[in-house]
Amino acid sequence: MKKKLRELAELVGGKVIGDGEVEIEGVASIDEAKAGEITFIASPKYLSKLNQTKASAIIVSPKVTQAEKPLLCVTNPHLGFVKVVSLFSSRPYQPKGVDAHAWISPTARLGKDVTVYPFAYIGDRCQIGDRVTLYPGVSVGEDASIGEDSVIYSNVCIYPKTVVGKRVILHGGVVVGSDGFGYVKDGKKNVKIPQVGSLDIEDDVEIGANTTIDRGALGKTIIRRGG
To answer: Are residues 67 and 105 part of one domain?
Structure first.
């Protein structure tokens, strides 16, 4: 993919100083960038590298107005760079279907264009939205639901009745909806408190690898949208 600098300016809501027709085909850090790539400077302490980088263009704040290379001036250079990185790193979703080595309950409901890798498990009455990806070793418990365009990486365990929203990313080893660690003393005996609450993960949430989020003893535990 190649984009002209002026096109990237439109994407990030910025202004070009210099040649807006220069073509960009990748992104890199200021020290590693080469011709054809764009980089960014978000901190004044890196301004000394402005004319040293081999990048074809640089994303900077509006305070920077002169350099030997074309500039893309934007209020938040770091955010602008993230948007450009997202553009160059994104790949169209291509569904791979349901692998024969996955186990899918006959009562589960799968949306359109899903990808289910080998050895994934989907329990009774689960609802899996359109374009959901379940990597190997994912376990989705009974009555759980996953919203469209979510990506669930390997060895994630989604406990029964857990609700996962749209465009959610759960990285490898995540456990959601498990029991909280609750006990009450009966003399010297520990009595487990039944965990009858639920866990709802709203849309656009990303949870890092090997994270555990328990359900509550009572009521809902909610991870709010965009968390």
So the answer is: no
